[in-house]
Amino acid sequence: HGLSAEAAHRLAVLLDLVVSDPRSPTAVRDPAGILKEHLADSLVALELPQLATGPRAVDIGSGAGFPGLPLAVGLPEVEFVLLESVGRKCAFIETAVVACGVRNVRVVQARAEAWPEGLDRYDLATARALAPMEVVLEYAAPLLRIGGRLIAWRGRRDAQAEARATAAAAALGMTIDEVVRVVPYSGAEHRHLHVASKVSATPPRFPRRPGTARKRPLGGKRPDPGA
Q1: Are 198 and 53 in contact (CB under 8 A)?
Q2: What is the mean pLDDT of the chain?
Q3: Which pLDDT score is estimated for 219?
Q4: 3-class secondary structure, 49
Q5: Contact by Cβ (8 Å): 124, 74
Q6: How far is the C-alpha of 196 from the C-alpha of 179, rounded, in Å?
Q7: Which of 65, 21, 67 is nearest to 41 (CA)?
Q8: Which of left, alpha, beta for 45 (phi over 0: left; psi -120 to 50: alpha)?
Q9: Range 60-97 burial, b when 16+ CB lie within 10 A, else e
Q10: What is the pTM (predicted TM-score) of this model?
Q11: How far apart are CA 227 and CA 224, in angstroms?
Q12: Collapsing DSSP states into helix, strand and coil, what is residue 170?
């Protein structure tokens, strides 16, 4: 991705920390797996021109810091907030930020639906392995300014799921712009980045109460998994 030697060093420090720190909140612990499943999968978004939307970005549900922390390393001119509701995960991300010497990252412990400080503020939102797309859209829309974009990491494409996401986007003042197939590393299959834009103000009933987006998702009823 044309990263500098300094950025490569910071990413190597991050990889070593995820491997060695027992507090690392990820099931992938071997270096090769972390390199592929976390670092390469996060950095593949640098291939998208839509990533360059403005100076403020929020990574929703950062977990162990992916994709937000690697992207912050790769985009030092962008100020990232890594938004995570679980305290122990925030503590690990804080440790990683210090260890890597990353200065354009702030870690915030909060749920996306209960963070008034972030409303209508961000040029870019990212979300990886977080929730169904209609739920991710509902988390992101209130945080984005008009013209801001959401990039969501998804797996295999599903026509019904994408139809629900399109309906949810319309209810939130957003549009689904495109779905981009990506290959973050050799052998990776069914990896897609879904790109959405905020085109009008978020309706005043959003954000809904924490947990509501998952319990009563927008975009129509999801099929019964047991059917």
Answers
A1: no
A2: 94
A3: 84
A4: helix
A5: no
A6: 9
A7: 67
A8: alpha
A9: bbbbbbbbbbbbbbbbeebbbbbbbbeeebbebbbbbb
A10: 0.94
A11: 5
A12: helix
E strands present in 28-104: 56-60, 79-84
Enumerate residues 6+ apart whose C-beta is below 8 A from 149: 50, 53, 123, 124, 125, 177, 195, 196, 197, 198
Beta-strand relationship, 105-109 and 122-128? unpaired
Retrieve residue 108's tokens.
């915030």
- Name, in order, each residue with C-beta under 8 angstroms of 5's C-beta and a sequence gap of 6 or more: none
The letter for the amino acid at 66 is: F
Extract the tokens encoding 172. 């939130």
Total residue length of the chain: 227
Which tokens hold the place of 106?
């702030």
Give pLDDT tens digits along the chain (227 positions).
Answer: 889 999 999 999 999 999 999 889 888 889 999 999 999 999 999 999 888 778 999 999 999 999 999 999 999 999 999 999 999 999 999 999 999 999 999 999 999 999 999 999 999 999 998 999 999 999 999 999 999 999 999 999 999 999 999 999 999 999 999 999 999 999 899 999 999 999 999 999 999 999 999 999 998 765 434 32
181 touches 192 (CB < 8 A): yes
Q: CA–CA separation, 222 vs 199, rounded Å? A: 26
